[in-house]
Structure formats: C-alpha cells, structure tokens
C-alpha cells in the first residue's frame, strides 16, 4: 500500500520565462508587438471614480457605486432599491457558498442590530471551507478539469484529485493570482520540492487524454504521433485560453489577420510543452519528509550497489553448485507464486469509523475435520491501495457448530491485541489442533482505511482438510453486511 499520494502530472522538462507570453512583462513597442495591441492584454490602469451629483452621492457607498451611478445617469435610469436583509443573506450565501442559509441563520441576521452585520457575515462566509469548494468549481471548468480521460474509453483518472484540492486550498487561502498562475504552469521549476509547486502542475494534465493514441498505439506510428501532437496542442490552448483569454488553436494551421498569435508564436509556445509526458508521479505533501525521502533513497541505492557486489562475489565462490540451487529456487518460487484473481472477493459495507466490528463466515455444510484455515487478501486499485485492500488491522478467527456463535465456539486465532501489518495477497495460514466444526467466522475489530472511510475486504477464505481439499469451495458465505447489499 502506498503511504504517499500520486498526482496525474505533466513533467515540465523545458521551460523559459521569455518563451511564454503570459510571463512577458513590458517590452518596447515594435511592428511585431503591434499585433498585441488589444485592450484585454494591457495592464490594468487605476481610474478616478466619476464625480456624482447630490442625489447619487446619497446612495453611492464605494467607488464601484460611482461608476454604476454615472452609467445609469447616461442612460437616464435610476438605481434599484436596497435589498432587505432576508434577500441579502440569501444572495450572499448562494454567491459565496452555493447553498441557501438555514432559517435560523436568516432570522438571526434579520434581527441583528449590528450596523456591520453584513460585512461580518461576508467575512464569515469567506472563511468557510465551502467557499473554496464553491468557487474552485468555476476555475476547474475553465481549465476543463476531469476525473476521467475522456475520448471513447473515458477511463477513470484516479490521481487527478490533488490538483482539484490544490485549487480549493488556493481559493480558501486567498493565494495571490500571480503565484497561482506560476505554480500551475511551472510549479516544479519555480517552486521545487513544495506541495503546491507539485500539485499545481496538474493543471497541464487536466485536459482529455487519448488512451488509445498514447497507451495502445506506439509513437512510431502516424496515429501515435497525431495523438501526441493533439495532446501538446491541448496544453498550449488550455494555458492561453485560461491565462490570456484568447484562442490560439487556429494558429496551429494558419495565420489570422487580426489574431494576436500567429503560427510562429504558436509553435514557439508548443516547443515549451513538446517534451512533456503525462504520468502518475509519487510525491509527499510534506516538503521536509520529501527531502528526507530523497536522502534515504540515495542511501538505499548505495546499499543496493554494495549488495549487488556481494551477491556477485557469492556467485563466483558458489560456482556451479550455487547456480543449480538458484535455478531450483526460481522454479519453486514460480510454482508457489500467488496469482491475482479477477474477482475482488468479499467487501463489507463502507464505515465512517474504523473501530467497528464486521464479520464474514462460511458454512461448510456439515461438521468437518479442519487441518488449516487460510486467509488471502484482495487486490483492488481503488485509491492506489492495490494488494491487501481492506485487510483488517485487527481480527479474530472462530469456529463453531452454531451459526450465530452463541455456543460451542472455538478460538482459532486472536489478532485483536494490536495492529497487524498488511500482508498484501500473501496467504495467512492458521493450523488449529484437533478441530472439527461447521462454521468458520472472520471477525474484524479494526477496519482498513479505504479513502476517508473504512472497509473489510477479503479475496479468499480456504478451509483445508488433512488431504489438502478446500472444504469452503462453493459453500455458502454470510456476513454482517456487504457492499453489494
């Protein structure tokens, strides 16, 4: 089980501040830059609020009101009346959180005598985690974020969520927009070894991805090259559409007379992304631990090199006899190799708490002499867990002739005193003494973590007799609950 998350990531191998238009600041005007004389590309200029007459000044409370009042005057229009408090609290709740206020909150706001009640309400809602969740959705729409790859296969993209959570944190933390932009385009280069610097670059990989064109068709074939070219085009247009608010897609094939970006500009930008590949990259959210991990991996590599030298020396001294033994061991390991089953086995219902009891049991049909009980974990790639998914941290095995285990019960194994290491899909064998029984029950007292919840899962339960026959094969299985129920 991985102890660190992953992120669907595009590695920035080539980046130059001067190559990307969004990082260009002031340059002397010239004939080439004349194409960029668009109001939307010019720096924001501070304007003096227009002067107002006495009537307008009576309701205008801030500079924005001054501009609105001036425009209303030009059109011979008057402003609407001020919203009452019931309307105001609903508007601000829907605007900032996307949800209505509770009736008790409406009543409290209406009855609040504080003249700054509205301002304090706004500050309260801006401080809510729900604010970032609400407004991050707008940004994720802009960057065409998806939890699946799109195209015809539309496969699940299980490691996209760190970028989504980064955007939510950025909104809740009021991150400066300039930093927000730089982190997403080149966070790994400009903010190396930081959580936000890594997770933000998920922006480059948010768009649709042609699984067939990349994973099933080699780059040596025309279709593979086309798929990769289209993928880089998506990176360019997503960057420009998002941060400059202009379309550049047409310049991939031809110039437009009045477009700010021509073919030369387009392919300069595409060169920035040309060396990128999408991949699932492991990282640690804590920069200190990430730095320590790099140091430890370096030590592991050094020790592995030393170990390789020792192994070579042993092979030399062992000669033919050792080579023969190694060959026999390889053959035995191949025969003993645990094969993953296509079935996911038994899954309990999901629990919001970890210290809850769940059980699953098999009915052997009649009392049978038991020689060995074997538990095998399941393999499920949900949340990148893989082998050992749902294997309980604490559990016990009981045998009984009573289906409810109220009487005539024998304890086969008790692993409830402390947390057990996850065995993956390696068989866990238990050999009871002189046991004859009909029902075998596995009871979990501490569940495995799934995501933000907990579950019990087992791939297989074998019950063997003295001849090695699996007495549990095709027998009835019952449980406290199951995810299929």
TrEMBL record:
Pfam families listed in its UniProt record: F5_F8_type_C, PSCyt2
Ranges where the F5/8 type C domain occurs: 346-466
Protein name as catalogued: F5/8 type C domain-containing protein
Lineage summary: unclassified sequences, metagenomes, ecological metagenomes
């Amino acid at each position: 089980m991985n102890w660190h998350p992953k992120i669907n990531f595009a590695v920035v191998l080539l980046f130059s501040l001067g190559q990307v238009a969004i990082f260009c600041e002031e340059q002397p005007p010239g004939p080439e830059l004349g194409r960029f004389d668009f109001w939307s590309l010019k720096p924001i200029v501070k304007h003096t609020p227009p002067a107002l007459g006495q009537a307008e000044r009576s309701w205008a409370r801030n500079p924005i009101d001054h501009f609105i009042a001036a425009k209303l005057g030009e059109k011979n229009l008057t402003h609407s009346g001020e919203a009452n408090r019931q309307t105001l609290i609903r508007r601000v709740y829907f605007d900032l959180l996307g949800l209505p206020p509770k009736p008790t909150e409406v009543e409290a706001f209406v009855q609040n005598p504080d003249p700054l009640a509205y301002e304090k309400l706004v500050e309260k809602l801006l401080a809510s985690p729900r604010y970032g969740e609400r407004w991050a959705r707008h940004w994720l729409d802009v960057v065409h974020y998806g939890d699946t790859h799109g195209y015809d296969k539309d496969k699940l993209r299980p490691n996209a969520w760190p970028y989504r959570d980064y955007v939510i944190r950025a909104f809740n933390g009021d991150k400066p927009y300039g930093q927000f932009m730089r982190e997403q385009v080149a966070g790994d280069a400009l903010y190396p070894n930081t959580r936000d610097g890594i997770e933000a670059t998920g922006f480059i990989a948010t768009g649709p991805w042609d699984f067939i064109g990349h994973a099933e068709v080699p780059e040596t074939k025309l279709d593979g090259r086309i798929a990769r070219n289209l993928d880089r085009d998506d990176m360019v247009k997503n960057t420009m559409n998002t941060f400059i608010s202009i379309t550049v897609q047409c310049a991939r094939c031809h110039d437009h007379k009045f477009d700010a970006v021509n073919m030369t500009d387009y392919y300069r930008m595409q060169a920035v992304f040309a060396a990128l590949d999408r991949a699932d990259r492991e990282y640690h959210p804590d920069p200190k631990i990430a730095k320590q991990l790099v140091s430890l991996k370096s030590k592991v590599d050094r020790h592995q090199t030393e170990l390789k030298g020792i192994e070579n020396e042993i092979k030399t001294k062992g000669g033919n006899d050792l080579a023969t033994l190694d060959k026999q061991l390889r053959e035995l390991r191949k025969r003993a190799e645990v094969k993953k089953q296509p079935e996911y086995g038994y899954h309990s219902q999901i629990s919001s708490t970890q210290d809850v009891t769940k059980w699953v049991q098999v009915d052997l049909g009649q009392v049978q002499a038991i020689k060995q009980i074997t538990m095998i974990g399941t393999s499920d790639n949900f949340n990148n867990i893989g082998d050992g998914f749902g294997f309980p941290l604490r559990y016990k095995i009981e045998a009984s002739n009573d289906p409810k285990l109220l009487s005539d019960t024998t304890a086969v194994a008790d692993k409830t005193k402390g947390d057990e290491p996850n065995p993956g899909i390696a068989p866990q064998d238990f050999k009871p003494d002189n046991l004859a029984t009909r029902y075998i029950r596995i009871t979990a007292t501490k569940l495995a973590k799934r995501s933000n919840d907990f579950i019990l899962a087992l791939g297989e339960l074998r019950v063997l007799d003295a001849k090695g026959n699996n007495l549990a094969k095709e027998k009835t299985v019952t449980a406290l609950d199951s995810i299929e129920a």
